[in-house]
Design goal:
14 strands; four-stranded antiparallel sheet; 31% helix; 2 domains; alpha/beta; 9 helices; Rossmann fold; 291 residues
Length: 291
């Protein structure tokens, strides 16, 4: 459905913004794209949309590249990006925006009324968008992508400005869209939320994909603790605050003895997989809140 083949992009005075990016993804998948601000996430989405043209490599949708203006129009009928709030027309209602997107993408299968009901927008959708709060505008922008109803959806910070109830609401709709066979690429800073529903999480750093996690694979288990690393032989510093020991080839008796030593030293510890937040801190040297 979507192919990125060895994408390379330079900016003036900033080479290798994207460097040899390769990706294959099919429908019925939610892919999280993770990195601190300024690492090229939005740039990559613009390349997928053909708003930026790589110096090397090719983007294909359903095996078709952006080879001509006619093919570009065909490709753009198959993909929709999350609109910016500044793109909303203040004097038009939310319903008018939804109908406009449905008409532009010739969506004849998902009704605007159903989308409004699914997103609990009925009490404000007919008001001018200039009267909307940040969260109401954000929900509308997501609803506009749903109204377009393309097979490929690019969602850049769809959760921004939403309260926990609306984060849960949008998360449920994302799962439903995946069940319909959509391919969704989602940029989000809410890592705890992201890891509850994505099929795959990709970390982008220095123009490269540095980590590609399959959420359906059995994760590796680690002994994780803070404090002095010398309490457990073979422990390594994974972040400034976290020491880890992989447990794949460690006997249970050994793990038990390490746990006793940590307990005796009054060092907090857990056993389990690495979370997205822990891996974020490892690769970028900061927490997601600092990014």
């Amino acid at each position: 459905m979507l192919e990125l083949n060895h994408i390379h992009l330079d900016f003036p005075n900033h080479p290798n913004v994207l460097d040899d990016i390769t990706l294959q993804a099919d429908g019925g998948a939610l892919i999280g794209l993770v990195a601190p601000n300024g690492m090229g996430k939005t740039t990559l989405l613009k390349v997928i949309l053909n708003r930026l043209h790589p110096s090397q490599g090719q983007v294909k949708l359903f095996e078709q590249g952006y080879t001509s203006q006619a093919q570009t129009r065909k490709n753009h009928a198959l993909i929709c990006a999350f609109p910016e709030q500044n793109d909303l027309y203040g004097d038009l209602s939310g319903r008018a925006h939804l109908q406009f997107y449905a008409d532009c993408w010739q969506n004849h299968t998902k009704s605007v009324a159903t989308i409004i009901a699914d997103l609990n927008m009925g009490h404000y959708v007919d008001q001018p968008t200039r009267t909307y709060s940040l969260g109401m505008k954000q929900r509308l922008c997501f609803a506009m992508v749903m109204a377009a109803n393309p097979p490929v959806m690019l969602l850049d910070e769809v959760m921004n400005g939403l309260d926990p109830l609306n984060v849960a609401l949008i998360s449920a709709q994302l799962r439903a869209l995946r069940a319909e066979g959509k391919l969704i690429i989602l940029v989000s800073h809410l890592l705890n939320n992201l890891q509850t529903y994505v099929d795959r999480t990709i970390f982008l750093k220095d123009g490269h994909f540095v980590l590609d996690l399959d959420a359906h694979a059995t994760p590796a288990q680690y002994l994780k603790f803070t404090g002095a690393a010398d309490v457990v032989p073979g422990a390594t510093a994974y972040t400034d605050q976290l020491n880890v020991v992989p447990l794949a080839e460690v006997a249970g008796e050994t793990v038990g003895s390490w746990a006793q030593a940590l307990f005796a030293a009054n060092v907090p510890f857990t056993v389990g997989p690495l979370s997205l937040e822990e891996q974020f801190s490892h690769f970028y040297g900061q927490t997601e809140e600092q990014a």
